[in-house]
Specification:
heterotrimer; A alpha+beta; B alpha+beta; C alpha+beta; A: alpha+beta; Glutamine Phosphoribosylpyrophosphate, subunit 1, domain 1; eight-stranded antiparallel sheet; six-stranded antiparallel sheet; globular; B: alpha+beta; 7 helices
Chain lengths: 266, 275, 245
Amino acid sequence: MDHFPTNWGRPRNDAWDPYATYPIHQRPNNAPKDAFADGVQRTQQPIVTGTSVLAIKFKDGVMMAADNLASYGSLARFRDIQRLHPVGNHTVLGAGGDMSDFQYLQMILDELMVDEFAAADGHALGPAEIHNYLSEVMYARRSKMNPLWNSLLVGGFKDGKSFLSYVDLLGTTYSASTLATGYGAYIAQPLLRRAVEGREHELTADQARKILEDSMRVLFYRDARSLDQYQLATITKDGVEITESRKLETTWDFAEGIRGYGAQTQ
Amino acid sequence: MFRNTYDSDNTVFSPQGRLHQVEYALEAVKQGSAAVGLRSKTHAILLALKRSTGELASYQQKMFRIDDHVGIAIAGLTSDARVLSNFMRQQAMSSRMIFNRPVPVNRLVGAIADKAQVNTQEYGRRPYGVGFLVIGQDQSGPHLYEFSPAGNSYEYYAMSIGARSQSAKTYLEKHYKTFDDCSLEDLVRHGLHALRETLQQDKELNINNTSIGILGPAATHETGVSGVGAFRILDGEKVKVFLDSMVPKETADAPAAAAAAAPAPAADEDVQMEG
Amino acid sequence: MAQQRQFNPYSNNGGTILAIAGSTFSVIAGDTRQTEGYNIQTRYAPKVFRLTDKAVLATNGFAADGNQFVKKVRQRLEWYRHAHSKEMPIRAIARLIQTMLYGRRFFPYYVYNILGGIEEDGSGAVYSFDPVGSYERETCRAAGAAQSLVQPFLDNQIYFKNQTPPPGQSFPAHLPLPTVLELVIDSFTSATERHIEVGDGLEMYIVLARDSGLQGLDGFQGVTEMGATPEGEKLFVLRRNLKRD
């Protein structure tokens, strides 16, 4: 059967038709390419997706944030999904993009960490090693034209050093003191850079938390695929801490004054 | 030549619970010329005695570089050693490729030990005819391991393998407690003294038959060594300084050690296959 | 025709690289900005890589391919070291890179490579490649986002194209190191002004031939020695800030 729900009908594909102007009968073409292609299907587009992940360095380590929403097109399908995943005692992986691919990554990383744990020789994998491993996995999959459809942030703290890096479905990698995936790259990244760049070694955990919270709030206001429920991960010398999901404080009373929002008075 | 009927297949136990083929493999290690390994807090070193097949031949390679942080010295069949060292190099490089980290030395030694073990159990195989001394460095400092064709690997403060290695072992057992705080120069001197014990009576160490492998910061006269001191093999002229630093045997409280070296097994003729 | 969306395995991450060979040195440079579309992904992602103490490779194009390619080249060089107990000479590295690139002729590394260093005869060398392995040895080459801005400038300043020497004189075949470094810095400052994908930082690797002294490198601030070969070639890196806007 066809495992791509977007080929069944609704919901429409927001990636190439953000304003729903395209006729609904136009479908991605997954026609068989050879005699055996029926038996194999590849991810051609994300289905259930997470939006932005944010991360910054601060004085004692790295802090990351991601909301709890997994969308199905424009439908807010799952509202209690965790997108920050601890890997060992020094690392957190945050994911945007396809959630099933992310869960697959969680699985292979968990297996990897079990193997490492079983070796029990004091050679723990740190964030840098895990990021390199992930970049190899992602690049290998893109090279098979069968990508894992994610943008990933790897944050960690080990041997006195902060680590923060990005890797995505193409295998592209980079690191910086502030990172944001998805919509966050457009909306939050400038805010994060203004707040963090040059102050990585001064910011306290409280300040870092405030910066992320403010950015998450802006994202919730502006990103239609976001949620006001989110989690924070803090990685310091004391290890990994991921909060319970928490709610953003937002105000909407200004909306009354916007023409076209509420009931029109004139 | 024959021991008994349990000789031909290494997967069959003798009634005494022994695998004769595996023991013969260990014998092949003893036929190879000696190698010595020792370590201090800062360095791990290897020393080996090279043999040549005759006046017209060059000396057999006894040491291999695996990675910047790992090196080995071998005793036994050089051809088997090349297969195993190639495998170790692959492991080391895939660790760098996949995790961007130097392979943990204990896992590397464990990997070849596991390979060797398979050969002691599966039908139609033969054990490797070579033993290794492996030195390596990681976060916890320098290490020395022995690998044997039986599929074992152990970590040591100091160790020797190969022909008449018992004499070197005797020397090392006598002095190993002082190695921890040795300078590189002193450590190499100890190593050379130990290696010297394995020589036949009329032979001595010279720049042609001695190899030194070093892991750790440079010696005072060494040039072109990076800060942390990647593994390097010294041959020829480069070992001269170290050879010159040796204390002549008569004065170096040698009587006991010399006595141990004296009953050298006769079966020490140089053989083409053996390094 | 139904709407088709096919996964595109490539991206372009901007930036520019440049290398110039002198008679006894080679300079290999690149900016450190990495972009995708209008986004600056990071202000520091190196595009210039030390291969040996006398060979440096600059990559430009799709960053993931570039990084992977450098890793693979380094592995091949390590096997060469294992087999021969010495570093691979640069002309051999150049041919190796051609073979590796052409090996992916039908799923290319989307990367423009420039290899710089010192030949076995002691001369400065620059080799430039296209993504599928065509290569040649040159005196200077720019590649990447601002290639079209920088290369004409180099043609004019290095090869003296469209210039006429004063009567009875001729142009030099090779320029001295300080002149070349100033040209590199000027190239990148100008490219930063006129191209949005260039900026943030400049990394210049300098390889000096054996027994050739410092060639005026001591007149530059902030030079770091990165290594030296047993034969005497020396490798340095020099960093400059570029505008971040």
